[in-house]
Design a protein that fits this description.
The protein has 338 residues and is of the alpha+beta class. The protein is 41% helix and 18% strand. Bound molecules: 2-oxoglutaric acid and fe (ii) ion (FE2). The site of fe (ii) ion (FE2) has 5 residues, from loops. 2-oxoglutaric acid binds next to strand 5, strand 7 and strand 11.
Amino acid sequence: MNPVKQKMDTKREVKQKLFDKFCELRKEATKRGLDAEVVHAVFQGKIVQVKIENDTDRVNKVLWALATVFAILSTILGVLAYHYDIKEDIRLAFQNSRCIVENNGFLIEIARPKTNCQICEHLLSVPIETNISTEKFLQKYAYTAVPVLVKDATRHWTAMDTFSFRFFRDLYNSVNGSLDAVEEECQFFPYKTEFETLRDVLNMTEDRADFKEGEKLWYVGWSNCHPGVSSVLREHYQKPYFLPNDAESSALDWIFMGGTGLGAFIHLDYVQRPSWQAQISGEKTWSLIPTPECEHVCHSMNITVQKGDIFVIDTNQWYHATYIHPGEISITIGSEYD
Ligand SMILES: O=C(O)CCC(=O)C(=O)O
Ligand SMILES: [Fe+2]
């Protein structure tokens, strides 16, 4: 075999193995009952020990093991990045994978480009627009990484009266192979729940789905990459009216759904494109925190997104977390754009 190609193949295999390992590690930790937030903090090197009622010893052992394995894997990855010069490859591998990135502060810090602090300098609150023209959107927000909330932007979408827990359950159950596709090719974020797959979520009891008293709360997110499901979803929503005609939407739809409480824990994504997210029902507050290099000139901000609003954010440039308000179930759909 051509030695250059062989070296590239080995490099690819090693890299793939490492990425898979990180993902497995996270899954294993969640399976063993560790809170996603705790796993996240361990991976960021923020804690190696935590006190949790009941079974503290077992949990601590798992945390120590996780921290150790993570430290070893990180070192290997660092050495490989240096030897093989794969920093750029890591970035590319991350591009479509929120799996590692959602949970791994260290990797994102070595892979992400530094933020240009002009995006947030002097910004004290998220700008709010109504009836914004495409020209203004292009000029002020589209590719500037300045976040914006556009009010009343989904008025004509049938999604507003259609999307619900049961709608998604019926849709996925009726499109052959779609749940397998989500499991194998898309991504699923259980956040604080015990669910491992979207299938588990859609199989929950009616009472839990309705947030009846005494039932465990839930909030999850997933990407849909099954074309059969996408085409039905897209009958119910359109590209936001303020995006330029030639702006291309990603083929992936991102859906976040669930009840009151903490939504997504604080994280930065490794997606290179900005994204929009439409609030189909319920109310959600986003907390935005500038990246460390911009902390001296930029401010953290909160913004509450209500039913019918579209929030545009570059999740690669702003650390973000979400909180779901009591009341209606929160359902959002979104996509990245170019
Ligand atoms: O909607 C949420 O709760 C989190 C969304 C998020 O993290 C994202 O779109 O990157
Ligand atoms: Fe995110």
